[in-house]
Amino acid sequence: LCALAVLDLPFEAGKAAARFEGARLRLKPQGLTAVFHRQIRPAERASATFPILVSQNFLRDDDRTRSEGEETFDKYVVEEFLVHTVYTCQVVLTNPTSSAHKLDLLLQIPVGALPAKNGFVTRGVPLELAAYATETLEYAFYFPAPGTHPHYPVQVARNEQLITAAPAWPLKVVSRLTQIDTTSWEHVSQHADTKS
What we know:
By secondary structure, the chain is mainly beta. About 5% of the residues lie in helices and about 40% in strands. The chain has 2 helices and 16 strands. The protein has helices spanning about 1-5, 185-190; strands at about 15-20, 25-30, 45, 55-60, 65-70, 70-75, 80, 85-95, 100-110, 115, 120-130, 135-140, 145-150, 155-160, 160-165, 170-175. It has a 5-stranded mixed sheet with strand order 3-15-14-9-11, with no helix packed on it. It has a 4-stranded antiparallel sheet with strand order 4-8-12-10, with no helix packed on it. It has a 3-stranded mixed sheet with strand order 7-16-13, with no helix packed on it. It is extended.
């Protein structure tokens, strides 16, 4: 704020003339202007190894857990995704070392998906991971149409160098599930036999 105070910028911005020439933008301001530019660039792989652990899993937003006896477990979706159904991507980072790490995460919803629950298409997230700590991030999306869609998994960088990433795999999206969990509340409440 102190630097902006002495730049002599006007309190109200004048209208700038903007013209696109292919992928290039030509901007002609009417007066003094400050420009902020942000971009995503390829990151080099770090030469040193950092033992940061990362996992990325998908859960159906309305049916996230399963019970076995008195224990509850996450119900990960790995084979088929249903159209028009909200899914949550759960990213878990773990630092098994005694040093804190300042990290940058690149998160993206799958190709062919749309964001849900105030979500995003692509987002960079700065994160400070304390010693022996675990952090969880979640974001939601849904698929409007069936097909097989690639997914760009979470990328973890430190000092603008890639240190780890979750594995990538294509996501199969279907109009009707071929494998139905008959123990889920959704199935039991809608399709269970009233005699049993």
